[in-house]
């Protein structure tokens, strides 16, 4: 990847995260990247094409981070361990890639995402869907639509990241939130049996 292309992608991520894709003119991205506005069009035919490139790069990093070290859930204990690892990975991503997380989770993307970006969005959710389905089959997680549960989890997580970015979230809150989300996900009997939640 060329140095200019990399600079443009990084600059676009920063300004998109702060101002959204729709509200960001191309000259603002070019200025942030230190290039002429016309340079962007050598790599992408439009701002929307650039936004898809930024989205795909950020989503690939997110998916890679989310699944790092997560065990295949074949037993009830595996489900709790996999959940704990995924939550830890989410927190790590929030700390290591704050602009990428803000861009991915705090904005609406539907108006410009192309087929590849939409496919990557589905791929990013697949590990969490598989974990929830495995947990439901093992009787560890509550019976509910996995997509609904994922929406609830990420809604809570995004709210936490907003608080963290504003400086109003103590470090211990991440673990407390993890336990609260696990209680929301777990089947009723699991909540009562397992006091050492992830």
What's this model, at a glance?
This protein has 198 residues and is mainly α. The chain contains ten helices and no strands.
Structure characterization notes:
The chain has 198 residues and is an all-alpha fold. The chain is 73% helix and 0% strand. It is built from ten helices and no strands. It has helices at residues 3-19, 26-33, 37-43, 47-66, 76-96, 98-105, 115-137, 146-165, 172-185, 188-193. Helix 4 runs parallel beside helix 7 (115-137). The longest helix is centred in the middle third of the chain and has 23 residues, at 115-137. The protein starts with a helix and ends in a 5-residue tail after the last helix.
Topology of this structure?
Layout: H1 3-19, H2 26-33, H3 37-43, H4 47-66, H5 76-96, H6 98-105, H7 115-137, H8 146-165, H9 172-185, H10 188-193
Q: Based on Cα principal axes, name the global outline.
A: elongated
Residue windows where pLDDT falls under 50 for at least 5 positions: 191-195
Helix content: over 70%
Intertermini distance: 40 Å
Q: What structural category characterises the helix and strand content?
A: mainly alpha
Average pLDDT reading: 90
Taking Cα atoms only, what radius of gyration do you get, to the nearest Å?
19 Å
Largest sheet: none
Give the tally of β-strands: 0
Secondary-structure element order, as H and E?
HHHHHHHHHH
- Proportion of residues in β-strands: under 5%
Question: What's the tally of helices?
Answer: 10
């Amino acid at each position: 990847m060329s140095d200019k292309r990399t600079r443009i992608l990084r600059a676009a991520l920063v300004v998109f995260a702060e101002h959204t894709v729709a509200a960001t003119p191309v000259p603002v991205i070019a200025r942030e990247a230190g290039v002429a506005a016309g340079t962007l069009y050598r790599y992408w035919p439009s701002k929307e094409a650039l936004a898809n490139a930024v989205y795909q790069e950020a989503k690939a990093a997110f998916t890679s981070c989310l699944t790092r070290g997560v065990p295949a859930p074949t037993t009830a204990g595996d489900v709790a361990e996999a959940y704990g690892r995924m939550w830890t990975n989410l927190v790590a991503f929030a700390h290591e890639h704050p602009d990428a997380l803000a861009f991915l989770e705090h904005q609406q993307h539907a108006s410009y995402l192309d087929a590849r970006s939409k496919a990557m969005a589905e791929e990013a959710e697949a590990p969490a869907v598989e974990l929830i389905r495995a947990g439901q089959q093992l009787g560890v997680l509550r019976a509910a639509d996995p997509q609904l549960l994922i929406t609830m989890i990420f809604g809570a997580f995004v709210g936490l990241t907003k608080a963290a970015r504003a400086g109003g979230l103590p470090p211990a809150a991440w673990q407390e939130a993890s336990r609260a989300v696990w209680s929301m996900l777990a089947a009723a009997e699991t909540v009562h049996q397992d006091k050492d939640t992830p």
